[in-house]
Design a protein that fits this description.
By secondary structure, the protein is mostly beta strands. The protein is built from four helices and eleven strands; from the N terminus they run H-H-E-E-E-E-E-E-H-H-E-E-E-E-E. It starts with a helix and ends in a 22-residue tail after the last strand.
Length: 209
């Protein structure tokens, strides 16, 4: 389970790159719009569904608090948790009492959790069929081992910066692909920092979260 979840934070929604984009906004303007959204999105909660390349499905709740904090609260049966505390991402598998941790900047999710990152240096706009949908692929060309993330946004009145994050696909250096779809997104809701705490199962063998 830990290996499966690692692919999530190490790789689109179905966006067809071969279809010409509607020329309503330049790529640079679209990238600026996405950056504006990420900077304006102080907090977000959503339901998520996660699918790997084999079709395995997991669901749960996502919580984001900028900068750098994220929590994937998986369905109870998964017995799994992913938490970002602003500096590092931690994967906890309570079923086997294993913990894996690495810097956020070493993950594709760094593009989502570092709103000050210059997308024009790392991002490439992907054409979509719908002019109200923006898709951006982010990869550090100097660090290909960090993987690729393709994020999909929909123009939405009332959302931060006029955009709503609808999901992403992560692709790690071993071509492990994981797709995340979001629903019921809520922005600007109060989120306590304590939501990004976690219990180390290596100390508590019962593995309670």
């Amino acid at each position: 389970m830990l290996k499966y979840a690692a692919a999530l934070i190490a790789a689109p929604l179905a966006v067809t790159a071969s279809i010409p984009a509607t020329a309503q906004q330049s790529p640079s303007a679209s990238l600026n719009a996405i950056s504006t959204h990420l900077r304006a999105m102080t907090t977000m909660t959503a339901n998520f569904s996660q699918t790997d390349r084999s079709g395995q499905l997991l669901t749960g709740q996502l919580i984001i608090k900028q900068p750098g904090r994220i929590r994937f609260q998986y369905q109870k049966e998964a017995n799994l948790l992913i938490v970002g505390d602003g500096k590092a991402l931690t994967l906890i598998d309570y079923e086997v009492n294993q913990v894996q941790r690495w810097p956020i900047k070493n993950s594709p999710l760094g593009a989502l959790l570092n709103p000050e990152r210059d997308l024009s240096q790392y991002g490439r706009l992907i054409p979509t069929r719908n002019p109200d949908v923006l898709s951006v692929e982010v990869q550090d060309p100097k660090r290909p081992e960090y993987g690729i993330i393709t994020m999909v946004f929909t123009k939405t009145a009332g959302a931060p910066g006029g955009l709503r994050l609808d999901g992403w696909v992560s692709l790690d250096s071993k071509n492990n692909r994981t797709s995340i779809r979001l629903t019921d997104q809520k922005f600007g809701v109060p989120v306590a920092n304590s939501r990004f705490n976690w219990t180390d199962p290596r100390r508590n063998r019962r593995g309670r979260r």
